[in-house]
Amino acid sequence: MEQLEPMPQQWTRALAIAAHPDDLEYGVAGAVAAWTAAGKDVRYLLVTRGEAGIDTLPPHECGGLREAEQRAAAAAVGVAQVEFLDHHDGVIEYGLDLRRDLAAAIRRHTPQLVVTTNLHDSWPGDGWNSPDHRHVGRAVLDAVADAGNRWIFPELLGLGLQPWAGVAYVAVGGSPRPTHAVDVTDSLDRAVASLSAHRTYLQALGQNPMASPREFLQWQADLVAPSFGGRRATAFELYRT
Ligand SMILES: [Zn+2]
């Protein structure tokens, strides 16, 4: 079987950007736990608070609760900085507002690695991806270029945000076209703790098999193993910028 390459190690700071609380915990967090254990600085940016994610909870009650669960999930894998943008769950629009907000965050955090989630139409296995994920993932790749150009969104200069062209890689988790992987053998327990921190959300999923964090994350890491020397791993599609 064709083998995935190990992720590049020549970076010190990563910004992981996702549409919703829980997106990073369905796979990416295992790699994040491995990175923070190795001394890397990883920060999270959530585009929404996932306020439309629980059918039985109205958004004004749900948003704050999911924000708190996301902060706990981040802490479980060594991430202390978690920021939220005020876009609306379920109706994130691809456009200049999103690109500007993401470019501003990239300039603020000055990462060498940006991580995001699947931006393709489908998931591995062909399930249809959600518009929020597609829009955020594509806007992240575009905003990496925007962040480095002083003449795109010049209003950011007025906020003291100088251009940052130091992003070397964008790694896309959950992609149907993976190219690289990170060994999660030693970080799987922390990844499980991280996903389990979304307690209210997982309870709302009920009997859905996605609701068992350990089973799901082991199954996912085992799927990647044959393509990564038999090691349990998280796969990424890597873009060099
Ligand atoms: Zn999501």
Brief overview, please?
By secondary structure, the chain is α/β, with parallel strands linked by helices. It has one domain (5-240): 3-Layer(aba) Sandwich (Rossmann fold), CATH 3.40.50.10320. The chain has an 8-stranded mixed beta sheet, with helices on both faces.
Overall description:
- This protein has 241 residues and is of the alpha/beta class.
- The chain has one domain (5-240): 3-Layer(aba) Sandwich (Rossmann fold).
- 37% of the residues lie in helices and 16% in strands.
- The radius of gyration is 17 Å and the shape is globular.
- Zinc ion is lined by residues 19-20, 23, 133.
- Residues 19-20, 23, 133 line the site of zinc ion.
What structural keywords apply?
single chain, 241 residues, alpha/beta, Rossmann fold, eight-stranded mixed beta sheet, 37% helix, binds zinc ion
